């Protein structure tokens, strides 16, 4: 949705990375290189923090005209 509705590939990348990491850590057997380290945990935390800041900025920038454009884009996704 971030890609299509808001043209925010950066946010899409962050959320996709987080989803992959969560699935990998939760469901798959880890090897030594995949073990969650303090550094990787801090990296994930910083990415999540950045994601939340970017979402708040995106929300604050929404105005009536932007919301109407986004609604039309959203509706067009389900027309096909």
Beta percentage is under 5%
How much is the radius of gyration in Å? 17 Å
Could you give a short account of the major beta sheet? Answer: none
Percentage of residues in helical conformation: over 70%
What is the H-and-E element order?
HHHH
Note the overall shape: elongated
Count of the separate structural domains: 1
Structural class, please? mainly alpha
Number of helices: 4
If you had to describe this structure to a student in words, what would you say it looks like?
It is a single chain. The chain is an all-alpha fold and 80 residues long. It has one domain (2-79). It contains four helices and no strands. It has helices at 2-6, 9-27, 38-60, 64-79. Helix 2 packs antiparallel against helix 3 (38-60). The longest helix has 23 residues, at 38-60.
Record the SSE blueprint.
Layout: H1 2-6, H2 9-27, H3 38-60, H4 64-79
Helix pairs in contact: 2-3
Q: What are the defining features of this structure?
A:
80 residues; mainly alpha; 4 helices; 79% helix
Provide a compact summary of the structure:
79% of the residues lie in helices and 0% in strands.
């Amino acid at each position: 949705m971030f890609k299509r509705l808001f043209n925010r590939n950066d946010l899409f990348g962050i959320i996709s990375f987080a989803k992959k990491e969560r699935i990998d850590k939760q469901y798959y057997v880890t090897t030594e290189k995949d073990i969650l380290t303090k550094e990787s945990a801090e990296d994930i935390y910083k990415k999540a923090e950045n994601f939340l800041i970017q979402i708040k900025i995106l929300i604050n920038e929404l105005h009536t005209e932007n919301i109407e454009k986004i609604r039309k884009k959203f509706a067009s996704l389900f027309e096909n």
